[in-house]
Write a structure and sequence with these properties.
Elements (H helix, E strand, L loop, with lengths): L2 H7 L4 H27 L4 H41 E2 L3 H7 L8 H11 L5 H10 L15 H26 L2 H9 L4 H30 L2 H5 L5 H11 L3 H27 L16 E2 L3 H36 L6 H31 L7 H6 L7 H27 L12 H11 L1 H11 L4 H9 L4 H12 L1 H17 L2 H6 L7 H11 L6 H29 L6
Parallel strand pairs: 1-2
Length: 560
């Protein structure tokens, strides 16, 4: 193949390149608008923020992030080490069951525990009955509605991020370094502390950063548990005080924290190649545990699963069945809310998949010469929902006004809020927030499609559009399906953007649960919360299957 033909083969496609940069513009527009909104605010507001809002919010956010970081690191790394390197009863079940808490959104976790462990709740009542106590005062329990309660509950939901990355790192560590440590007299604890943990540290940092970004994005659990975070300050400043510039200024502070976490994650990912050391590529043999050690490992893996998933899911199921038996029917409006939730999530999924495919196909076909556009298109995943909602408000309001003016001039009609009032704003927020998922999934799928197929198609005269339609899309179908599932479930669970951008007359399952918790009527929101958890199980099952498949490849030749 001559240089001229290669040049023609890789010739840029201006239309496709322009479309991709338009997508990047849509993603960046809320962030630019956020800065403009913040700049439009009065400078007189900053003394109030600096004295009464930011110190408490920053302190609470910092303590929450630090506490959750400790909890998820300890639970995620400890259970990953046990599952990856030890043999004990139940290890095969815990290998995938430790991922189940990911199906429970953080706000539902707080919602459940507030109902389950208050003095008259089912758990304290059962304990008092077992101990022969009659008064709630006889059994004082720690207060869940506190900073420490929020730290523990968020940690129980978010530790699987660290568990996934740490387990993968432990599985690919070669036997050479660990066996050498044993021959030098190091026991299991010393080997873990001095050899395995330093090698896995970059992977642990990646999972930890993802968990902390979810912590910063949380709004429901923080509010339910009385923790005044930056996210909650943005929400209350905008909606309760009607101060959009003030909310934007707080959002910029929060965005700076997210940027710092993102840079930390990039730093950790930069060193992910450090995991395999030594000449032998096979992993170390699992060490059989017995007696108290086996019982301790079993309990260490059981507790996170029981507290992070089994208890919340069981309580929601019990409460939902009780309410259904009491009323003899589903709660009024629940089917409409479920339909609205599914419709919005489906629309967000379709748009995100379409735009993600556009970005990745442009990169594959040579319309983009670098990965800059792809990285910018996925930037929204690092932006908390509250920050994104504040940034979208003004651009969408101006677009609505322009459409209304155009409609009045052309047809003599006032269409009203076509975007903000129809749910389109929420679909756009979902698309920007989760666009990184299809981009990443399709890039991984393309990594399995060799360049030889493209070369063969071009040699037969196939142009890029036909090559994408006839070759790429059929081979990318599994990646598209996995991305669609993940985006759909994330859209269904998303709370901050849903609360701030949904039309006033529209309820989703997430906003329904939030409203019932805010009113203290936990039982009435149990079925909606249970539906969200059940839907959330689908990507967890997919993730468990994918991770087990990767583990089997990494563990080939190892004794079980």
């Amino acid at each position: 193949m001559t240089a001229a033909s290669r040049s023609r083969r890789r010739a840029p496609l201006p239309l496709l390149r322009g479309a991709v940069w338009a997508v990047v513009g849509v993603v960046l527009a809320p962030l630019l608008a956020l800065a403009a909104i913040a700049a439009s605010g009065s400078t007189a507001l900053w003394p109030h923020l600096l004295v009464y809002v930011l110190p408490q919010a920053l302190a609470q956010t910092a303590l929450l992030v630090a506490g959750v970081g400790v909890v998820v690191t300890v639970i995620g790394t400890g259970t990953a080490w046990l599952v990856a390197t030890a043999r004990f009863p139940g290890r095969g079940v815990f290998e995938w069951a430790l991922l189940l808490p990911l199906a429970v959104p953080t706000y539902i976790q707080a919602y459940v525990y507030l109902d389950a462990v208050h003095p008259l709740g089912p758990i304290p009542t059962a304990i008092r009955a077992a101990l022969g106590m009659t008064s709630p005062r006889d059994l004082p329990l720690p207060e869940v509605r506190s900073l420490w309660g929020c730290i523990v509950l968020l940690g129980l939901v978010l530790y699987p991020y660290v568990y996934l990355t740490a387990r993968s790192a432990f599985l690919v560590q070669t036997a050479a370094a660990l066996d050498a440590a044993r021959t030098l007299g190091l026991g299991p604890a010393a080997t873990f502390r001095r050899i395995a943990l330093p090698l896995a540290r970059p992977a642990i940092v990646v999972g930890l950063t993802l968990a902390l970004m979810e912590t910063v994005n949380d709004i429901g659990a923080s509010e339910f548990l009385g923790v005044q975070t930056l996210t909650l300050s943005i929400y209350s400043t905008w909606l309760n005080r009607s101060d959009l510039p003030g909310a934007a200024q707080i959002a910029l502070v929060m965005l700076a924290i997210v940027v710092a976490l993102t840079l930390a994650e990039r730093w950790g990912r930069r060193q992910l190649r450090v995991g395999a050391v030594g000449g032998r590529a096979h992993p170390t043999l699992r060490r059989r545990l017995g007696g108290p050690a086996a019982a301790g490992a079993f309990l260490a893996c059981l507790l996170p699963v029981a507290l992070g998933f089994l208890l919340p899911a069981g309580h929601l199921l019990h409460t939902a069945l009780g309410r259904y038996q009491f009323h003899g029917r589903l709660p009024e409006g629940l089917l409409a809310e479920a339909g609205a939730t599914a419709l919005l999530a489906a629309l967000g999924t379709l748009v995100a998949l379409g735009l993600g495919a556009l970005v990745v196909v442009a990169r594959r076909t040579g319309a983009l010469g670098s990965a800059v556009a792809g990285r910018l298109a996925g930037l929204g995943y690092a932006v908390p929902g509250t920050v994104l909602a504040v940034g979208l408000l003004v651009p969408l309001a101006k677009l609505d006004n322009a459409l209304a003016t155009l409609g009045a001039a052309l047809f003599g009609l006032a269409p009203g809020l076509l975007i903000s009032g129809s749910g389109a704003a929420l679909v756009l927020a979902y698309t920007i927030r989760f666009l990184a998922i299809p981009v990443g999934s399709l890039e991984a799928g393309y990594g399995k499609i060799g360049e030889t197929l493209d070369m063969a198609a071009r040699s037969l005269g196939e142009r890029p559009p036909g090559m994408v339609r006839r070759i790429h899309l059929p081979l990318l179908r599994p990646a598209l399906g996995a991305a669609a599932l993940l985006v759909f479930v994330d859209c269904m669970k998303e709370l901050p953007a849903t609360l701030m951008l949904r039309p006033l007359n529209l309820e989703t399952l997430a906003s329904h649960v939030y409203g019932e918790a805010a009113r203290g009527t936990y039982e009435d929101g149990a079925l909606a919360a249970l539906l969200i958890v059940l839907v959330g199980l689908a990507p967890v099952i997919l993730l468990a299957r994918l991770s087990r498949g990767g583990d089997q490849v990494a563990s080939s030749g190892r004794s079980r």
